[in-house]
Amino acid sequence: MAKTTNLEDATVFLRSTLAPAFALTLMTAGTALAQAPETKITPVEAADLPPAVVAVVTAAAPGLKIKAAELKVREDRRYYDVEGALPDGGEIEFDLLEAGGKWKIVETQRDIAWTATPQAVRDAAVKAAPKVAPVRVIESTQADGQVIYELFAAGQPKTPALEVSWKGGKAKVLTETWPH
């Protein structure tokens, strides 16, 4: 049997006991996000990415090794989601939007621990959903410096159950899905 750490034990406990309550609380609290618009997703091999997309992400993260990419079309907007590994081994995803024939990064994402989110973000989430215990947290830094924390509940892997905006030291629970 594999030896577990206290952190692993705590994670298993949270996922098995609190995460279902998180999902139920969000459904009953009236703060669940409105449905996101439909998105057409096409996987793209790293070698098939447009050179302009590769240039933008490698300028933002020198030494980036691109692992996967997707072309997304939503509400007449074209995006590339480009996932990769940084030289230090960290994983990162860039979301690029095509505007005026050029690609620009509109969001930089990474997975973080729930406990690594700012206290004000956790407080706002708990106020909206008292038994909040996300099984996944994505920190999404926007081009304007705002950060959106996407909180995922057990059994809901595709869309966040709750999103919290963080800018200027203030946290706000979003009632509509963030556009990027």
Q: Can you offer a commentary on this structure?
A:
This protein is of the alpha+beta class. The protein is 24% helix and 37% strand. The protein has 3 helices and 9 strands, in the order H-E-H-E-E-E-E-H-E-E-E-E. The chain has helices spanning 6-29, 51-60, 119-128, and strands at residues 40-44, 65-74, 77-85, 91-99, 102-112, 136-142, 147-152, 162-167, 170-173. The protein has a 9-stranded antiparallel β-sheet with strand order 1-2-3-4-5-6-7-8-9. A hairpin with a 4-residue loop joins strand 6 (136-142) and strand 7 (147-152). It starts with 5 loop residues before the first helix and ends in a 7-residue tail after the last strand.
User: Helical residue percent?
Assistant: 10-25%
The average pLDDT score comes to 82
Report the biggest beta sheet as strand number plus sense, adding barrel if it closes: 9 strands, antiparallel
Task: List low-confidence stretches.
Answer: 1-33
> Could you tell me the strand content as a percent range?
35-45%
**How many DSSP H or I helices?**
3
Question: Any idea what the radius of gyration is?
Answer: 17 Å
Distance between the ends: 43 Å
* Major beta sheet, strand line-up: 1-2-3-4-5-6-7-8-9
Describe the secondary structure blueprint for this structure.
Blueprint: H1 6-29, E1 40-44, H2 51-60, E2 65-74, E3 77-85, E4 91-99, E5 102-112, H3 119-128, E6 136-142, E7 147-152, E8 162-167, E9 170-173
Antiparallel strand pairs: 1-2, 2-3, 3-4, 4-5, 5-6, 6-7, 7-8, 8-9
